[in-house]
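Quick one, probably user error.
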């Protein structure tokens, strides 16, 4: 691996560091989120993706005590397993309460907020969708498809300069997006999702979902690639 991931021991913000930039035995960093200074032991093992970090002035547990390891283990007893949960995007197991994924780096709170916002907007859009004249029948002498008493172009549903219209999608497209999330690293699932969107001649829902993913993780290579297709 060309890079390793490190996490601030205080606020748990995740960073990625290229191995070629590690020049000392104890590289030090300052967290941009909580301003804490921390370090890790270098060089990290070649097969280790996430490296243990320590606050400035703190020593690794192995150096804090000279007591034999077997005595320490008997005194402390077996450690309880840490509860974990899978990332909804890449399925990496993360400690419960982690703010972001140690595998893909996505911020869980943003992903949840974007998902709830998308569902709410779609629900509101479906509930408030007006019935067209062609569906309810326009009185004789009035053209179908245009609201009565409004100039041509009014009533389009979008006020000039006021927000962005909600994007709704049929249930089969939402189900297809759920399948994409369940196998997010599989590009063929994304290709199928986009192909069906093209067949339906409506890419607005797909575009919104990938925008949400990029907002939650600006470095999501798959979302960036699919959005630009």
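Nope, works fine. Designed sequence:
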């Amino acid at each position: 691996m060309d890079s390793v991931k490190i996490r601030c021991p205080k606020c748990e913000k995740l960073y990625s560091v290229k191995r070629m930039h590690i020049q000392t035995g104890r590289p030090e960093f300052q967290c941009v989120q909580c301003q804490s200074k921390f370090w890790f032991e270098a060089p990290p093992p070649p097969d280790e993706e996430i490296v243990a970090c320590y606050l400035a002035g703190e020593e690794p547990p192995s150096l804090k005590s000279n007591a034999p390891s077997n005595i320490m283990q008997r005194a402390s007893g077996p450690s309880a397993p840490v509860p974990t949960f899978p990332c909804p995007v890449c399925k990496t197991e993360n400690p419960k309460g982690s703010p972001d994924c140690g595998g893909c780096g996505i911020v869980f709170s943003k992903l949840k907020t974007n998902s709830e916002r998308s569902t709410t907007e779609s629900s509101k859009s479906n509930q408030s969708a007006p019935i067209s004249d062609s569906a309810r029948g326009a009185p004789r002498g009035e053209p179908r498809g245009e609201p009565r008493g409004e100039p041509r172009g009014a009533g389009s549903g979008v006020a000039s300069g006021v927000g962005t219209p909600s994007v709704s999608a049929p249930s089969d497209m939402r189900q297809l997006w759920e399948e994409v999330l369940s196998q997010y690293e599989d590009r063929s699932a994304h290709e199928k999702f986009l192909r069906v969107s093209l067949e339906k001649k409506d890419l607005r829902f797909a575009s919104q979902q990938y925008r949400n993913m990029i907002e939650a993780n600006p470095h999501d290579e798959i979302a960036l690639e699919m959005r630009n297709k």
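The chain is about 35% helix and 10% strand.
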